[in-house]
Design brief:
Layout (H helix, E strand, L loop, with lengths): L9 H19 L4 E2 L1 H8 L3 H9 L5 E2 L3 E3 H11 L6 E6 L3 H8 L8 E8 L8 E2 L2 E5 L13 E4 L3 H13 L4 E4 L12 E4 L2 H5 L2 H4 L4
């Protein structure tokens, strides 16, 4: 089935991985069926919102019965194109990059970081979880390895240059952890995560002491 992604809200796409994680957790608990209300309790999203998000892609549940967990999880994987293992490359093996390399949660979504690069001679050649850190000057060779996803964890001053090199190396999407805005061709999807900026929003919601 083909979907008209341009008509689907960006927020809906952001929530789909959350639903998938909730379904997998529920399955691990031994459940085979789940209602939108039960899934809402798992993921912290209103049940009406869940039904609305899923309705963009078809009818997956039955009134009074709920969703077949295995079937719905498979459908969401197909929508997100997670049916096959997606290879990723990490650029920047500092404290944040090393944490990303060792993070076990990528397996849930079928991601595998298969290459890592850094400019620091002290890091080049070292192994982190069976991945040898390579010299960033050799990043162009990635094209032969058919890696689709790029993860940037370099200082702000190097972020745009790194993104440009990843695009030239054939990467089709980028997850940017650098605290800055980067540009890429329209065909390249870029998602930026700035932990400090997101943290800066929290005090607004805190009561005044």
């Amino acid at each position: 089935m083909k979907f008209k992604y341009r008509r689907i809200p960006e927020e809906t796409i952001r929530r789909l991985p959350v639903y998938l994680r909730g379904l997998l957790f529920s399955s691990q608990m031994g459940h085979r069926k789940i209602s939108s209300s039960e899934l809402a309790e798992f993921v912290g999203v209103n049940s009406c919102q869940i039904r609305k998000d899923l309705s963009y892609f078809g009818e997956f549940g039955k009134r009074g019965v709920g969703y077949d967990i295995e079937k719905l999880a498979k459908e969401i994987r197909n929508i997100l194109k997670l049916g096959t293992v997606r290879k990723a490359v990490l650029v920047g093996a500092g404290n944040l990059g090393s944490a990303v390399l060792t993070y076990p949660g990528f397996k849930i979504y079928n991601f595998a970081i298969t290459a890592a690069f850094d400019a620091d001679p002290k890091k080049i050649g070292k192994k982190v979880r069976d991945i040898t850190i390579e010299d960033v000057r050799n990043i162009a060779k990635l094209k032969k390895r058919k890696i689709d996803l790029g993860i940037i964890a370099v200082p702000q001053a190097d972020a745009q240059k790194t993104a440009d090199e990843l695009v030239k190396a054939g990467v089709k999407a980028i997850l940017n952890f650098s605290p800055c805005y980067i540009t890429a061709p329209k065909r390249i999807k870029v998602v930026t995560i700035d932990i400090a900026m997101d943290l800066a929003r929290l005090p607004y919601y805190m009561p005044v002491s």
